[in-house]
Write a sequence for this structure.
């Protein structure tokens, strides 16, 4: 059996019914969520790199409103080439000058066996993964590595304030990760 149990496998019909439901929900809330006249640039000049985990609402967790920050999300909140691409655009075209890297407790990328996952994906899809998975053993160390990668990138302004945190999904609190171990 794969890492996921058979009953966890989504069916194509599930996606269609969920999408239809979400489109209907959008019609009900469109007048509340629309942002006519709002600037494209985030008003607080900050970008947040965080995980895609569905338990986390980055704006709510940081007390932000729509329009105040850019949020870049992926599995694990890993700093990838595409994250750097997005942050470069955020800085150069939209004026952000501060970056927060926010990992979280209970992340599925923490401790993921990359070799086993890669093998399972190759068996399932018949091709090897051509992108890094980005798992990590220790969230604090990965936050430090992410900060170092951002500071070393030639595409991130050298005077950018970059700080890292672990968000505790149980308490809702952020804990800053010191940049020295």
């Amino acid at each position: 059996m794969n890492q996921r149990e058979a009953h966890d496998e989504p069916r194509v019909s599930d996606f269609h019914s969920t999408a239809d439901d979400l489109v209907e929900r959008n019609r009900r809330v469109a007048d509340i969520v629309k942002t006519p006249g709002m600037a494209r640039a985030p008003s607080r000049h900050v970008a947040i790199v965080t995980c895609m985990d569905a338990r986390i609402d980055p704006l709510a967790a940081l007390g932000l409103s729509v329009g105040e920050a850019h949020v870049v999300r992926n599995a694990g909140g890993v700093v990838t080439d595409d994250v750097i691409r997005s942050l470069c655009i955020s800085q150069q075209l939209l004026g952000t000058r501060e970056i927060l890297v926010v990992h979280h407790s209970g992340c599925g990328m923490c401790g993921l066996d990359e070799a086993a996952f890669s093998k399972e994906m190759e068996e399932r899809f018949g091709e090897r993964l051509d992108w890094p998975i980005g798992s990590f053993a220790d969230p604090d160390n990965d936050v430090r590595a992410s900060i170092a990668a951002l500071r070393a990138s030639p595409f991130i302004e050298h005077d950018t304030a970059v700080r890292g945190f672990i968000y505790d999904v149980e308490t809702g609190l952020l804990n800053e990760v010191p940049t020295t171990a």
Remarks:
- Helices lie at 12-33, 58-61, 81-94, 114-125, 139-152.
- The CA atoms of residues 23 and 29 lie 10 Å apart.
- Residues 12-33 form the longest helix (22 residues).
